[in-house]
Amino acid sequence: MKVLEDTGGIDRQSTDQEKIDTVTRRITEHGNYLRKRYPILQHQDALGAGVMVFSLVGMAVTGGLYIKGFIPGWMCIFINALLTSFIHEIEHDLIHRLYFRKQPLAHNAMMFFCWLARPGMPSPWLRRSLHFHHHKESGTDSDVEAWITTSGSPWGMLRLLKLMDGFVFGFLNAVFAPGWRQKVRLLGKIIRLNTPFGLLYWGCWYVFLGYHLYVWFGSIVGEEVNSSATTLAVMEVVNSVVVILIAPNLIRQFCLFFISSNMHYYGDVAPRNALQQTQVMNPWWLWPFQMFCFNFGSTHSIHHFVVRDPFYLRQMTAPYAHKVMAQAGVRFNDFGTYKRANRFSMDHSQTRSRG
Questions:
Q1: Given 3-state DSSP classes, what are the helix, strand and coil percentages for the chain, each rounded to the nearest 5?
Q2: What gap in Å lies between CA 102 and CA 230, rounded to an integer?
Q3: Which positions ≥6 away from 137 have C-beta within 8 Å?
Q4: Rounded to whole angstroms, how far apart are CA atoms 121 and 114?
Q5: How distant, in Å, are the alpha carbons of 122, 147, 160, 186, 354 from that of 177?
Q6: pTM for the model
Q7: CA separation for the pair 297, 279 (Å, rounded)
Q8: What angle is formed at CA 344 by the lines to CA 340 and CA 346, rounded to 5 degrees?
Q9: Using one digit for the tens of pLDDT, what is the confidence trace for 199-233?
């Protein structure tokens, strides 16, 4: 148990890079220890594929039970939101090539199925370059991935809207961009990033909202809405897609972005300084959010130090890693970040906001 128990001490007088190197080395050693202690962890490809198959089959079974009337809609949404959180972690690991690195057919097939299960997101192949840049320049102004999740924006209705509906967020950014060329460029980029699955996903969602708002408004003003048989048949399909796929992903994405955007620092982070890029957020009251993003707030900071470990190993490493990270000065539960628009500096006079 030597590796498990020996967190040692980290000299506070060390440079930030020396602390980062120490944290990275110790977490890596602990991961190696866990792999030796639990040999099943050495079958990384099989574990990743197994979790993915379990999640996809689970979503299909749950959807079938809902369509047949064996479970209510809220239960289908709840279960599938949990399952899509597993698939998100698998996709994130795939972006880092942690599964089937030397077997491109299997690797790309898993990437494709991840995209199908989360169609409201751009393709993982397009996101790979953004994510690699996020690791290199996390928290700086060029970190587009962090900005997309609303890091750096002041809290208010606009940020809440961005968290709830990424498509509207992108559309509004394009509409209010300065100059027609910029507007057209951003609109084209939104369409490209959402083709083809995202356009179907968001289109289905807006049809669902539009129809049910129309019916609701009719009931408010006392006008009965008489839909045609064709419309009712189409809406039956749309309603099922929303319950089985869209609503679970909206919940998962909101929870993930809410946690991610607040545990990452943004705007005044020293370049490539993992001590400043993230914090650990793990209070009990965040569990309703953590549940739908696989405990992201507690474990994602570990990933900024050690990229090679898959998501399930980070969960196992967390108790040890947290001790080492705390000794190095990584922050825990810094809730002032909500008021500072995710700035690392605690001096409010030096913070600035990005809308």
A1: 70, 0, 30
A2: 49
A3: 143, 271, 272
A4: 10
A5: 21, 16, 20, 8, 14
A6: 0.91
A7: 8
A8: 60
A9: 999 999 999 999 999 999 988 888 888 889 999 99
